[in-house]
Structures are given as C-alpha cells and as structure tokens.
Design a protein that fits this description.
The complex is a heterodimer of chains A (about 475) and B (about 450). Chain A is an alpha+beta fold. Chain A contains 13 helices and 16 strands. The radius of gyration of chain A is 22 Å and the shape is globular. In chain B, helix 9 packs antiparallel against helix 11. Classes of the chains: A alpha+beta (about 475), B alpha+beta (about 450). Chains A and B meet through helix 10, helix 12 and strand 15 of A and helix 4, helix 5, helix 8, helix 10 and helix 13 of B.
Chain lengths: ~475, ~450
C-alpha cells in the first residue's frame, strides 16, 4: 500500500488534537476574491500539516462549495467534487435524508443557509486559552477580502464528555497507514477518509480536479481522468469535513428519561439504566454489549454484537451505539456485516460547546439547575471520502431510519428526529420487551455545512490560481 | 388448508400516440399528486394491488437504426388471479384508465368503449416478465394489512398491561403468551386471527418449470438406463463430452472477446437528472426504481441475457423464498422485463430504505447476479467472465444505475409504512400466536414483539 503523504495533509486528517484542548472555529465570508486569494497565500505557511505533530497550537482551513464559487470556481470544476458537497447540506431534498425538519430546518439555522452562508472554515486549536486567543488575533489582523461571520467556541471536558454527561469519542475507526493500529475488523483503508488513496472497494475514485490551464505553474500534481483527460489533481491528500452545530436540551433529556424510567422500570432511579439503553454505553463508557449490568466496567471498544448480544437483550437494536456503527450485527452474518459496516464509517472529531449544566454532570444537579440562557451542544465534525456513502448514509439508513434492524417505529433515541406521534423505543427484555412511547427530540440543528479540506499543495494552488481560466 | 393465492406481476406496455406525451405526462402527474386517493383512481380501494406504477419510456433509436416511440408502462404487483385484478382495476379506476390510455395507440374510442374491451386492450399489451422476485411470498394485500393491525393491537395491549399491572412482567413467557391469546380471542375485530393462519407456499411453480424438471429427470434416467450401453462404446461418450467442451469453450472465448471490446461508460452522472430523481425519493418507508437500458447487439448477447434472467427467476421462486435475496431483506418486489423484441431491458423494483443503501446492497451482496444481467446492456462497467468485476466498480456502477433510471410518473404502495422485515415478522407473530410451542419457542416468539 502506498504510504500516506502526511507532510502534504492538513493535521486534522490525522488527529483531533486531543492534546490541544482549547479550540475555536471561525466562519468566513468571501467579500472580494482577489484579496481573499492574497490572504490565502499568506495563510498557507501557517496551516498545520499532519507531520510533524504540533505541540502548542494548530490552524486548519476548509472551504464550502459556495466558498469555492466565491473564489472564482466555475460549476464545471465544482462538479468534479461530490454532488452533496457542491449542492450543500441545505439543498431541499437533503432535509429528508438528514432529518433536518421543524426547528432544525435550514431556514432556521444560524449559519450555513442562504441567509448566512459559510464560505471558509478556519479551525484553531491551542494548548491553552491565551495561546488560542493570540492565534485568533493574529488571524483576524491579517484577514483581507473576507469577513468573519461566526465564531464557534468550544468547551473541553476531561475526560471527553458530551453535555448529557456521557463519555464521548471512544469508538473510532483505525485508518490504515496512520500510526494507530488495532483489530482488523475496525481498520479501514485510507481512501475512506483521504482522497487519492484506495478505498474500501479497492478503488481510487475520481476526485476534485481542475483544468490544467488554470495551473500553468503545475503546482498541482497531474492525474489522468477518463472523461476529461489530464487534470490538475486538487483532491489528493484532502478530505471532506462535515460540520453540524447540534444544540442539546439537557434538562429535557433527563426529565424525559426520569419519567420514562418510572414508566418502563417502575423506578425513577433506573434512569441511568434507561439512558444507557438509549445510548448503548453507560455514562463512563462501558458498552452494554459487554457490561449490561456494571456501569463501572471499562470503556472498551473491542466488541461485536453477533456473539455477545444477538437479540439485543443487553444493548437494544434501537440504541444510538448500534445504529451509528452496527459492527457485525447486520444481516448476512458477522463477516459480511463487518465489511458492510466498514463501508460507512466516519472519523469523528467533534467538540462540545457551551457551559455544562452542572460542573460534575450529576443528573440531580443538572435537573435542579436554574434554567439559563446559555446554549450547549456539540459541534459535530467528521471526515469522509464520500459524503453520500458515509455521512449521509449513516444519518439516513441507520440514525434516522425508524426501521433500522427490523424495528418498526424507533428513531435514534438520542440524536433522532421523531417525526410523528407513536414513535417508540423498544428495549428487548424477558419475558417480553419494555417500550418507551412518544419519543422526543433532544437535539436540534443550528447550522451546518459540507467543507472540502484541501492538501497544503492544493492550498498553495488556491492562493495563486487564475480560477477564471 | 386452502391454497394461498400467489402474488404475480403484470407489465403492460403501450405505445403513446405521437404528440400526446405532454398531455399524458400532465394526467399522470396530476394522479400522482393525489396518491393514494385520487377521485378517478382511489388506489386504496384496490384490494389486490401491492404496488403500482406508470412509467413513460422515452423514445429511442438503436444501433441498427430502428426507432421505438415513447411507450407507457403500467406495472403492478397483484394477488392472483389476473382476471380479478384487471376487473377491479377497471371497475375502481376506469375513469383514470380512460384519461391515461386515450393518449395511447389503439385504445377503444369513447363510443365503443366497454368494460370488456378495456380489459381486452390491457391484456393484449401484457408482456409478462422475465424475472420476478417477491420478498413477501404468499401474502395477500389483505393479509399484510390485517397482520400489521394485529401486531399493533398486541403491542398496545402489552403497553396497557404493563401500565395497569407491572407485576405481569414476573410471569413466565408461557403465561404472557396466554394473556396475549386471551386478549386476541376477546377482541372481536381480531376474530380472523383465531382461525388457522393461511398457508405460505414455499415455492411457486410455473408450468414451464414442470417441463424443465421433467426434462432433467428424463436426461438423468436415460443416462442411468443407457450407462451400460455408453460404457460399451467409450468412443460415443468421448465425442459427446468433446462436443460439449468445444461448445462451452467457444462460448467463453466469444464472451471474453466481447467483454474486452465492449465500451463502458465513465463514472459520471447528469446531475440535474439525479436531482429530479432524488426529489421524488424518501417520501415513505419504501422507495422505487425504474430503469431502462439498451441490450447489447447480437443474438448471443440476447440469449445470454434471457438465460441469466430465467435462472434468476428460477432461483427467486425456489431458493430465495423467505424474504431474502441472498442476504438482502429490503426488496418487496423486483422484476426484469425484456421489451421491444429484445432491444431494451426494463427493471422495476420496490424496496425499503434509501437508494444509497439499495445500491450498496447490490454491490456488497449481489454483485455477481446483477453483473450477469446488466453486463448484457450498453455502458455497464467492464466485466470478467460474465459475473466478475462489473457492479463491484462502485462509482461506475452507481453512475450507471442513476443514468439508466427514469422518472416514475405514478407510484403507489398499499402499505407505505411497512418494510419487508416488518411484514415477515408480522406473519411470524400471527403464525405463532396459537398452537403448541415449547418454552424456547415461546421465548423466541415473544422476542418478535
């Protein structure tokens, strides 16, 4: 297998910067293309590569389809990207795929829609708050041809946790060629996340490219394409980044779980069990499939469902964990299921935002907290090589699909958008299932967009190219 | 026990009168906007129709310069017998049929139109199918709807029981099942469920299958009887085998040569076309796909296609009878029909979930079969020995699938909220409701709820 060109990739492809706990994301709007390109030229030297690993701070940059249009890309060039990318996350029929309806519909978003389109995403990571602010100041001072439209702050919790109180970021696919290694059933080829490398089908699919006339200095490597002959290879060592601002109704969630546990377990104290059934892990990360009754068991990720829990008696089929990665439990046997699951994986790099409702995440404290104005949630971030086959597939076929795994009316109990009355959460049990009725929506979408995160070479090209050629 | 009715597929292909495509499209769009309750065709009153669609096939010219005009296809999946289906279609939707087929060649003029000659018109244009797959074998529309009601009522009962007397959870599985049985017996609208469940046929013979089996049996018997004679004349045996090998070898050589020469399409789609298709998708639990492709030139290609379709049809009837095609459990009905004297191949399917998932299943789980079929049509990804490569070229195959898809003008599903897995599980719930069970069987049955 070809080794990864880490010095040409942005660092975010290889790591989520766990060691740089402070982070902020700036959304920029291109006001004047030539000035913006000049700014990009000066920025490129500061963009952090995947190798070497930074110790103090990092800067990454990515573009939406609208952003590339604003920089001068024609539709012909844009259409060499994924259709989902150049159409945008807010394209009308996409709402049915993603479940973005009601308050989560794009017209209500704060950003990422027609009213406030995102063009450029700058991600800044730092070891501490001062370093972060200093870098943001430097970036802002140098800004030209672009206007800052949003600053998305993040919060870091140790250990990594989301606002409902659950440990997060435990399960990730292992990408062949990066330093981390592990079980083969959790390992996927680099092309699933990095453009230009073989993917899970053993192919190197067509990737973003430009007419060589736009690149007379041959900044971009050349690639041969079937339809258009020799092209400038814009995609190589890049990736697609999905960003969604998901606001979480923490009190609503725990109120619902408390009341529902009274109903289905006859005991409000069982709310931790019910919440774990919904998530698929106990609060501290122990997977139900391995530890159905021990909340303090280790937060392992090396398990399957086929042997451990074929009937969902431990970890319900409807749980968030099973749907976000069904592992070996889909139809067709464990081997085929693992192969299929691994063709729809995401590298998740999200960060929470907003203050915790209670510092210790104690449920009683969170329920007792005075209602505040603060918004809290998750800046969901993931990488994929194919937006439709990975992110949108996962969202539509697993998360939002009430029929997942032979179910009837069960949305994802945590992240789903129950659309109509009569939705349920089915908990397999003896002698017969328990069932929570009328599920609610606890997570609303406040903004989102698909970004292309180019390689450093492609960034140099974007700063210099005469895109109108 | 009564023989259960079989589901079957009707495909009616009619040429559209020249200049009538636009008004016909308008009528179809108007009807589609009011599915399932259009005044001229109240779909839900069709008691024997599982799925129904009208699709306009664009005009085409093949490489021999033969023109085919725009055609209208009506495709239904219905409960047998066919005459009852056609009669109901005309009785319930006669006005819609008139409005639609007045734009087609040969439809009876208003003054000579009658129930009988409309039915004859439809029958005269029935082209059947080459392959039909049924994921919900042997279940009528009525049974599918009633069993869904039964399951919902039992679930409701369990919820109430749980609320009123939580201690009921301490009972044995057998006792829980008994209380469900009591509930069903005491509920008059579920009366039907207390009688024997209808027989689900495990296979679905066609007359020509019996001929095939008779033929095979004869050959085997003849060989058996003739063995002493063959043994006595080794020369005859050898030359027979040799002829067979020569014939097979020649076919493979021909196929391989063609495979190396055939052109494949680049993995590129018409984005506007994809958008038009996607706008119609993901409205209900199921989705549909209508695709039309051009069969590659040459008699041997056509023969290969017919043979593969025939073999898959046979597999569908005798092997994949439990609601799974291999390990794909999301297909309600699918069919391939070769039309226009072997020039074009039409594919219609009704499936659960997203297009992306459906195509993923095709590639991950059914690549060989689909490659063997579609590699006989123009533009398919390159193949090796009929079943190799082909659909496994993910991007190219997905692009091929999108490009060969056509808009489905009218589409109706009799049970838009049920998946194949739901339907089959509902039948299993009903089948296990009464009758003897071991405790293990009862535990497994309760897990279906």
């Amino acid at each position: 297998m070809a080794s990864l060109e880490l010095t040409d990739m942005q660092g975010f492809l290889a790591r989520g910067y766990g060691g740089l706990p402070e982070a902020a994301f700036l959304l920029l709007h291109v006001e004047e293309a030539a000035a913006a390109q000049a700014w990009l030229r000066s920025l490129t030297a500061d963009v952090t590569p995947a190798d070497p690993k930074p110790s103090q701070s990092a800067l990454q940059v990515a573009f939406t389809g609208d952003g590339l249009r604003a920089l001068g890309f024609g539709e012909d060039t844009l259409q060499t990207f994924d259709q989902a990318f150049w159409e945008g996350m807010d394209a009308p029929y996409r709402q049915r795929i993603l479940g973005d309806d009601g308050d989560s519909a794009p017209q209500h978003w704060r950003w990422g829609n027609d009213a406030n389109p995102a063009h450029v995403l700058l991600m800044l990571f730092a070891i501490d708050a001062e370093t972060l602010e200093a870098r943001i100041e430097t970036v802002r001072d140098g800004l030209q041809g672009l206007a800052e439209t949003e600053r998305l702050d993040t919060t870091s919790f140790t250990p990594a946790r989301e606002h409902f109180g659950f440990r997060d970021g435990i399960s990730q696919p292992i990408v062949e060629g990066l330093s981390r290694s592990g079980a083969p059933e959790n390992t996927v080829p680099p092309g699933e996340f990095f453009l230009g490398y073989p993917n899970a089908y053993g192919e190197r699919p067509v990737r973003p490219s430009v007419d060589p006339a736009c690149d007379p200095d041959e900044i971009l490597p050349r690639t041969k394409t079937e339809r258009d002959g020799v092209r400038g290879d814009l995609g190589r060592n890049g990736t697609y980044v999905v960003l969604r601002q998901l606001s979480q109704d923490v009190q609503g969630f725990w109120k619902f779980v408390t009341e529902a546990s009274e109903e289905v377990y006859g005991d409000a104290e069982e709310r931790h069990r019910l919440a774990a059934k919904m998530v698929g892990r106990w609060r501290e990360g122990a997977p139900l499939a391995l530890s159905p009754d021990d909340p303090d068991a280790p937060a392992r990720d090396d398990f399957g469902y086929h042997e451990e829990d074929p009937d969902g008696m431990k970890c319900p089929f409807a749980s968030h964990l099973r749907r976000s990665n069904p592992r070996d439990s889909l139809e067709g046997g464990p081997e085929e299921s693992t192969t299929v699951s691994n063709r729809h994986r995401l590298v998740r790099r999200g960060r929470p935002y907003g203050p915790p409702l209670a510092d210790d995440f104690d449920v009683d404290d969170m329920l007792a907290a005075a209602p505040d104005e603060a918004e809290r949630g998750l800046h969901f971030l993931c990488l994929c090589g194919d937006i439709a086959r990975q992110f949108e597939f996962t969202q539509q076929t697993w998360i939002e699909n009430q029929k997942f795994s032979g179910l009837y009316d069960d949305p994802d109990p945590l992240m789903g958008s129950p659309q109509d009355e009569g939705t349920t959460f089915t908990i397999p049990d003896t002698p017969v299932r328990r069932r929570v009725r009328d599920m609610q929506r606890f997570v609303e979408v406040r903004g989102g967009a698909y970004f292309f995160m180019p390689s450093l070479t492609a960034l140099r090209f974007l700063g210099r190219a005469d895109l109108s050629a | 026990m009564a023989r259960a009715p079989y589901q079957n597929g009707l495909t009616i292909v009619t040429p559209v009168r020249s200049g009538h495509s636009a008004p016909l499209t308008a009528v179809l769009e108007e009807i589609n906007a009011s599915v399932p309750a259009h005044d001229d065709l109240p779909f839900d009153a069709l008691t024997r129709v599982h799925f129904l669609r009208w699709v306009l096939l664009p005009a085409t010219t093949d490489d021999l310069g033969r023109d085919t005009k725009t055609q209208l296809v009506l495709s239904t999946n219905y409960d047998e017998p066919l005459t009852a289906h056609l009669e109901e279609l005309v009785d319930v939707g006669g006005r819609a049929l008139d409005r639609i087929y007045q734009h087609c060649v040969g439809y009876p003029a208003p003054d000579e139109r009658s129930r009988d000659n409309v039915i004859s018109y439809l029958q005269a244009h029935d082209v059947g199918y080459d392959t039909l797959y049924v994921g919900t074998r042997g279940r009528t529309v009525k049974q599918i709807r009633r069993e869904a009601d039964l399951r919902a009522a039992i679930q409701q009962f369990l919820d109430e029981k749980h609320r009123e007397a939580p201690s009921f959870r301490k009972q044995s599985p057998t006792a829980v099942r008994a209380s469900i049985q009591d509930f069903v017996r005491s509920t008059s609208k579920l009366d039907w469920a207390t009688s024997d469940p209808p027989h689900v046929p495990s296979r679905w013979p066609q007359p020509w299958d019996s001929m095939l089996f008779a033929g095979l049996t004869t050959v085997v018997l003849l060989l058996f009887v003739a063995t002493p004679w063959i043994a006595g004349s080794g020369w005859a045996l050898l030359s027979g085998l040799g002829a067979l090998l020569l014939g097979g070898g020649a076919y493979v050589a021909w196929l391989r040569r063609r495979e190396q020469r055939d052109e494949e399409f680049p993995p590129v789609t018409d984005h506007e076309h994809v958008r038009r298709l996607a706008r119609k998708e993901d409205r209900i639990v199921q989705n549909q796909m209508s695709s039309v492709t051009t069969v590659k030139a040459g008699r041997l290609r056509r023969r290969t296609l017919y043979t593969v379709l025939w073999a898959i049809d046979l597999f569908g009837r005798y092997v994949y009878t439990e609601g799974r095609l291999g390990s794909i459990s999301s297909i309600h009905f699918a069919r391939w029909v070769v039309i226009n004297d072997g020039q074009r191949l039409v594919f219609f399917s009704n499936f659960d979930g997203s297009w992306e998932n459906y195509l993923g299943d095709f590639i991950d789980k059914a690549a060989s079969g689909l490659t063997a079929v579609w590699s006989n049509t123009v533009g398919f990804p390159n193949t090796r020995f009929l079943v190799g490569a082909g659909a496994r070229d993910e991007k190219r195959f997905k692009a091929y699938a999108r490009n060969s898809q056509v808009l489905t003008q009218v589409w109706y599903s009799a049970y838009p909220n049920l998946t194949v897995q739901n339907i089959n599980n509902n039948s299993a719930i009903r089948a296990g409701l009464f009758g003897d069970q071991t405790p293990a069987e009862t535990r497994a049955w309760l897990r279906r709820l």
